[in-house]
Design a protein that fits this description.
5 helices; about 10% strand
């Protein structure tokens, strides 16, 4: 008699991804941008923009970061689980306070 397939049998195998190249580049280069902002960009874009840019950059750093929290989504029919990290919109609210 053949074994009956359970939802656990149908779930794909999790294979973690490596570091996100965009986030890696951003983490390396953003401090250089901050240091050069006054000299290179302040006259064109305004001196008061750097704090706004820095706040948005802080939100971007944690956006989609699994260590900042996840949501578990489960299919009620088959029991398949999917996990999604939280995204920027929830962190922008906290950054404004």
């Amino acid at each position: 008699m053949a074994a009956v397939a359970t939802p656990a049998d149908r779930q794909p195998i999790y294979r973690p991804r490596g570091p996100d190249p965009l986030r890696t580049l951003f983490r390396r280069r953003f401090p250089d941008f901050q240091a050069a902002y006054e000299q290179r960009y302040a006259t064109s874009y305004g001196r008061l923009r750097l704090p706004l840019i820095t706040r948005a950059a802080s939100a971007f750093r944690v956006c989609g970061d699994w260590s900042q929290g996840i949501a578990r989504i489960r299919c009620p029919e088959c029991g398949f689980d999917r996990f999604r990290p939280f995204f920027c919109k929830s962190y922008l609210v906290r950054a404004r306070k």
